[in-house]
Amino acid sequence: MSHSLVFRIATTLSLALLCVALAGCGSMYQPNQQGAVALTPQQQQTLAMQTQQYQQRAAQLDRDNQELESLLAQSRQHSQLLDDQVRATQAQLRDTTDRIASLQRDNNQLRSSTTALAASVQTRSQAEIRANNTLVRNLTVSNLPGVQVRQDGDVIRIELPSDQLFNTGTAQFKYGGDAVLRAVAADVTQNYPQQLIGIEGHTGGGPISTPQYPTDQHLSVAQAMAVYDVMVRSGGMPPKQLFVVGHGANHPIVSNATDAGRSRNRRVEVVIYPETTSR
Description:
5-stranded mixed beta sheet, 7 strands, alpha+beta, two-stranded antiparallel sheet, CATH 3.30.1330.60
């Protein structure tokens, strides 16, 4: 209701009450010779007081109306703010749910890897390869640029630089990265067709915080799984011969204090164990 409308209503009400008063007190108001109502000074004073009271009430109604309109605007603004907060909370909840699901998948993969390693420890007594054997046979992958092969106790480690395989900070292969893995799979299959093979992901300890890879652990697992997929699908290696581990930045080869050191530590290692698996 607008201010002018409230004032017009109050004025109309005043005039109506005045007419009622005049009609009900006909004996008090006598028309003059021209037909107009003549008011005594006392009546004029009473009428003026009543008119002033009605105007004051109209002004008060106008102020009340303004206050109510202000409160309504504040209420609408507060309601909009609450709606925005609810939408933001819902978005955060969806993001948290997705991250929990991703962590659960990673946990299942790590649990499978742990089970395979436990089985490996239990069958050490049946190993055909010993620490004093010459494990590094004629592996042709040692001639590939950037690839290093070394004996580590009773296992062989084929070290593949992540910077050579993947786009920075992702598990997406660079052009030609999968070709290197196919060559590794062919070489390992030829020389160690029945050995247990571990695929271990390592990062360089740099800052990692993305929705897809929130930690070093997530990235190392994702890169190891990407290598696993290529060696199984394109390299033809049996899935039961392989297992996957993501170490994050927990096992550096050199110090991470320099860029060169972090680059060296970013790697995926194909580890050949002395234990065998049946085809």
